Every structure is written in C-alpha cells, then in structure tokens.
UniProtKB/TrEMBL annotation:
Family as reported in the entry's similarity comment: Belongs to the class-III pyridoxal-phosphate-dependent aminotransferase family.
PANTHER family: AMINOTRANSFERASE (PTHR43094), AMINOTRANSFERASE CLASS-III (PTHR43094:SF1)
Source organism per UniProt: Lasiosphaeris hirsuta
Gene Ontology, cellular component aspect: cytosol
Keywords: Pyridoxal phosphate, Transferase
Protein name: Pyridoxal phosphate-dependent transferase
Amino acid sequence: MGQFFSIPEASSSKIHSRKIESDASSETVVDSLSKGPAEGFPLLEKAKGYYWYPGDGARILDACGGAGVACIGHARRDVAQAAVSQMKAFSYVSYAHFKAMPVQEVSDWLIQSTEGEMQKVYLMCSGSEAVEAALKLSREYFIWKDEPQRVNFIGREESYHGTTIGSLSASGHVVRRGPFEPILGPQFHKISSCNPYRQRHPEEGDEAFSTRKAVELEEKFQQLGPDTVAAVIMEPVVGAALGCVPAVQGYLRAMKIVCEKYGALLIFDEVMCGMGRTGSLHAWQREMVVPDLQTIGKGFAGGYMPASALLVGAKVTELMKREDKAFTHGHTYQNHPVVAATALKVQKIIQEENLIANVEAAGRTLEQVLHKLLGNHPNVGDIRGRGLFWGIEFVRDKATKEPFDPALQMAHQVFRVAMRDFRVLVYHGQGCAGDGRGDHIMIMPAYNMPETSILDVAKRVTRAVEKVFGGC
Ligand SMILES: Cc1ncc(COP(=O)(O)O)c(C=O)c1O
C-alpha cells in the first residue's frame, strides 16, 4: 500500500478511560470543509457504484457520497448519456436570452414534486448560491411589499448555509465563520439550534421543547423589532454543523407560526437534507410545514453536475406577479441546460427505481445496526438521523456529555482510521456541542446501496471507532 496519513499513537489505544494525546496544535481545528484531500492517496482516477478506486489497488467503500451528494452512486452511464445528449443539442444559453427546454422541464418537475406549494424555480450550481439568492429574494420581496425596513435575518447556532459572505453570515458554524467573522453581515442574528441531545430538559417532551424554542424566536423578533425581520432560515434536519440532527416533531410548525405572526418569510435550507436524503423528497413534506422559500442542492443532481435551486412559494410569486416585478439577481451559469438535463435524469432515476422507499427501509436498518454496534460505546454520546442521513457524536464522558478538546480532532481521527484501515469513507465535522467543540462523523450512503453494503458500512465504521477510542 502507498504511504498513508499518519495517525497519532494514542489514537489506536484504549482512550475512553485515559488521557488522550494528539499531534494537533491547540489552534488547529479540522473539519471536512477545511481539510484538503486525503493525504497519501494517489490522484483519483475511477469510481463505480459505491466504491472509490484511488489507485494502488485500494477500493474504498463510499459511505458519505462526499458531503451527502452522490445519492445514486458513481459513474452511471444513463446519467452521463443524458448530460452528453444535452451537450450535443446545445450546451449553454444565457438565462437572459432564452429559457432552455430542460430548464423548463426540471422546473415543472420540481414544482409538481411540491404539489404546487412551490411555484417558481431558479436553477443554480451551488448550495451557497441558492441560499444567497433566498436571502436576497427575501429582501427584495419586502421592497416590493413596501416594507423596506425589513433588513434583519435570523439564523441558528450550529448551522451551515454556505461559504459566500451572505450564506456564511446566516450560518452559525463557529469554525467556518472564524477567519471571516469581522466581515460577516451585522444584519444576521442567531437563536439556538434545535438539538434535543444537548438541550432538552429532563422530562421535557417534543411539544414543550418546541414551545420553548418558539418563545426564544419570539423574543429575538421583539429584540430586533418585529417588523425589521425579513426572514428566518433553518435546516429542517441539520447537516454538517450538527451531524444529522432532525428537528423534533412540532418544532418546524412552531417556528412557522412565529414567522407568520410577525410577517417574516421562512426559508428552509434543504441543500443537504433534501431531495430524498431523509426519506421524503422534501424534508418539509414529513410534517407538511411548507416554507416560503426552499433551497436544494447536493442530491438534486447526485454530483453528476453542480446543481442547486431556489424554490419560491406562492406568497412571494403572487406578489411578484401582482406588482409585475423581477428578481434583481443572476449568474452567468444560472439555468444551465446541461445541469438541468442531468438533474432531471437523476430525479427520474430516483423516482423510477423507487429509491426514496429504499432510503426509508435502508435507513431503518442502518439506524438499528448502528445502535446495536455502537450504542453502548463509552465515547459514543449520540446516534441520530433520519433516512440515510446518520450522525455519530463522540464525547469524552458519556454521562456528562463532555466533548473532547477540539485540538484532539477526534472526528478527523475516526475519518482517517476508517479510510486507511477499514477502507470506508465517512464525513467528519467539529462544532456540534457548540462554540466549536464537539466531534461527529456522518454516514450518508447512496439511496440505492443494498442492505448487505449498509451492514458492511456499519461494521467498518464500528471497527474504526473501536480502533480510535478502544472497544466497548
Ligand atoms: C445545509 C447546507 N446549505 C448550504 C450549503 C452550501 O452548499 P455548497 O457547498 O454547494 O455551496 C451546504 C453545504 O454543505 C449545506 O449543507
């Protein structure tokens, strides 16, 4: 085998019962966004189905599809054909000149998938662009509505909405905001995340917990001036920042009621948790809490093209129509025909192969086996998720939930050991316990991964966790 990354000695010994050493400096914080490609592997030449082939005979089981992107596996010829056939017809047209047929088709398909709750689609390339557009459209909506004083946005702690200035301003991810803090927007405010593992009081049920969170949102509106808030943005199931934490039952509805009371828009960022990943095509469909604006990305084109979209609900489209307004926004690659044709093909495959049902079924299997294999591990604090979107949070002390020192980079160590020794790729992150502390990994297999491979993922991950922390 080629030369792989080095792992601190202490990581391979039983560490849940003793002091942990690390080679990391105390300033170093590593999560999947800040860390470059896996050291030691040759350049990637090939992937097929659920496997990466980075050379040297290595075959890596892909348990995360990058950041939850590759939702139908790698290198499918049928998707490649759809992209190529669009390129042969025409590969680019400016959205300002013509609307391309595949853009119309994928937009109609998306609108239909929401049963008409969303009425307009802006097709883009990255999740950050879609979020940026959602924030800007919220602002412009209130100009059309003659409420120009609405300049504030409310996001949540331990959230991630993107890497551009606006989307990062809306994010609560401490590590990713870090270097840019002084240039992030002062109009972006935060409330706490919805994280039952760390925030729920003893004996507090979902309803009481959601009510407490809604009161906090109300207080934030009052503090800012209720008529100064343009929008509240949240992920229905939090991805990279918390490690697959679904909102508790009733929370999204409680948040929506507060937004409606004060006339602000509600944006659901489904870039990571949407497009089938959590067991319904749109995450909001589980409780039928419809947002005013919705962003999608990642699983939309399954990584075959950089594809994202902003979906716009009736409240906004009706005002646009009534006032005869257009959104002052546009990218060169907006409404790209090849992106549209590819995304539509991926969505049709998901539909025709009934893959969302598989997400539900395989997700239940994954949930059960993770709990069985790792639920009692002394350094596994929480296993949470939905569909094929599962997070494992590591703690120094299971009883107190005390996280590890971030400098130890425990999640990153699990990621490295999993890849090097057990040939399984997972996504890792830090910050899930707040203030940049807390380590988690995320398991996000392709929707069509068979049950035997799902079990294989769980076993390999378990062995990596046991190698890093010691066994149960
Ligand atoms: C919820 C969420 N929103 C937005 C983004 C930004 O998407 P992109 O990295 O495609 O710009 C991400 C990326 O991880 C995300 O998870």
